[in-house]
Design brief:
Layout (H helix, E strand, L loop, with lengths): L1 H15 L7 E9 L3 E8 L6 E4 L9 E2 L6 E7 L6 E6 L2 E12 L10 E10 L16 H23 L7 E7 L10 E3 L3 E9 L6 E11 L5 E5 L15 E4 L2 E7 L8 E12 L19 H5 L5 E6 L3 E4 L8 H11 L7 E3 L6 E3 L1 H35 L1
Parallel strand pairs: 10-18
Antiparallel strand pairs: 1-2, 2-5, 3-4, 3-7, 6-7, 7-8, 9-11, 11-15, 12-13, 12-16, 14-15, 16-17, 16-18, 19-20
Helix pairs in contact: 1-5
Length: 393
């Protein structure tokens, strides 16, 4: 029976050893170029997998293949691969970001793979243009004296204005469940009612107005549909209706969940235009959405202001025929999704579906293998004892 025990031990060793012996060493290196970003990784062993932008594995320009050495990298052009752009006002500039996935297996995604949200920030700079002006005068001394006084007064006035800076508001975009006081959601079903909420917070009171405009939804793979135009007017009332502005720095609207065909995720993106109040009132381009025949020059005069890009969290939409897409299941999944860092297992209420994280799955496989090996060894020991007793008799 000894050869049998040895064979079982080898099988157990194979079960525990089915993990790719490779990993990323140190921190990734990011180089932000003029129109591209370069990402470079160092690996423990020769790299045999792929590096690609999430959602664009099948796009050759958005993927690099095995290098067979201890480095892996990818060059991402900003004009390709759906690189996300987000403008900011404090500091003034633009973020360009992409989710980069590193897979160590040449064909499959495994538990040792990693994903990184790579960002490059480009700060906007103000260019000061000056010119020298020379004026000839017969009364040179008197003119220079007047000029000096005028310059001093202008400099003093400019200094006073510069010191009166007002902090720009900070804005966010949320998709909520159960109304304006609900929780942000990450999972929903087609037809479920959700609540879109845009809000800005500012230390300055009664100064700014916000207008939500240029809203779009995309599937993460390049397909994008416009929901609100540059004036903040809805393009399809069945997808998103006219926005309601309860305060100067808040907007909201109810909506029914929809999805792209055979695409599980939705990504919402909007722009928020911040303008100063006029005579204590907020005047928005979206106030006249019902009057589509207005002159363009009337609208363009209201478009001046700072624009801020805002994004909602990724919304995973389940089809109506999914077996676990009941409302109670989604609420349970939603509550667990708020603790992503602590969630290892999700058990749906139908008792048939179980979702495990990669770490939990590995632990579960190890426990099952250990129990199986223990039970088999116990069976072998029992059989040997019975065999000895039977031989004595």
């Amino acid at each position: 029976m000894l050869p049998t025990v040895t064979f079982l031990s080898l099988m157990a060793g194979m079960a525990f050893g089915m993990v790719i012996d490779n990993e990323i060493v140190g921190d990734p290196e990011v180089d932000c170029g003029v129109d591209v970003m370069h990402v470079k990784f160092k690996t423990k062993n020769p790299f045999e997998g792929h590096v690609y932008v999430k959602g664009h594995y099948d796009t050759p320009s958005c993927r690099s293949n095995a290098s067979n050495n201890h480095t892996a990298g990818l060059t991402i052009a900003y004009s390709q691969c759906d690189v996300r752009r987000q403008r900011t006002t404090s500091p003034s500039g633009v973020y360009l970001s992409a989710i980069v996935v590193v897979t160590f297996h040449p064909m499959f995604v495994t538990m040792v793979d990693r994903a990184y949200n790579v960002k490059c920030f480009y700060m906007a700079t103000d260019k000061v243009v000056s010119s020298n002006l020379e004026v000839r005068s017969d009364h040179l001394g008197i003119y220079h004296y007047s000029k000096a006084v005028t310059s001093f007064l202008l400099s003093t006035l400019a200094t006073e204005l510069i010191t009166q800076n007002v902090q720009m508001p900070e804005c966010k975009y949320e998709v909520l469940s159960d109304g304006p006081t609900g929780q942000p959601i990450k999972y929903a079903t087609v037809g479920q009612q959700v609540y879109h909420k845009w809000s800005c917070s500012s230390e300055a009171v009664d100064v700014y107005c916000m207008t939500v405009h240029t809203c779009s939804v995309e599937d993460g793979q390049g397909r994008r549909v416009l929901l609100l135009d540059e004036n903040g007017c809805p393009q399809d009332k069945y997808l998103m209706a006219n926005l309601n502005y309860p305060t100067d720095l808040a907007a909201q609207v109810d909506s029914m969940v929809f999805k792209f065909a055979d695409k599980p995720s939705l990504f919402f993106q909007c722009q928020i235009r911040l303008t100063l109040k006029t005579d204590g009132q907020c005047k928005r381009t979206s106030d006249e959405c019902h009057s589509l025949k207005r002159l363009k020059r009337e609208v363009s005069s209201k478009k001046k202001g700072e624009n801020i890009d805002v994004f909602s969290d990724t919304l995973v939409v389940l089809d109506v025929d999914d077996g676990y897409a009941s409302l109670s299941d989604l609420k349970r999944l939603q509550s667990l999704a708020r603790h992503d860092g602590k969630r290892d297992m999700v058990i749906f209420e139908d008792g048939q579906s179980v979702c495990l994280s990669s770490v939990s799955f590995g632990i579960l496989v190890a426990i099952i293998g250990l129990l199986l090996l223990t039970s088999l060894m116990a069976s072998v020991i029992v059989c040997l004892r019975f065999g000895k007793r039977y031989a004595k008799h």
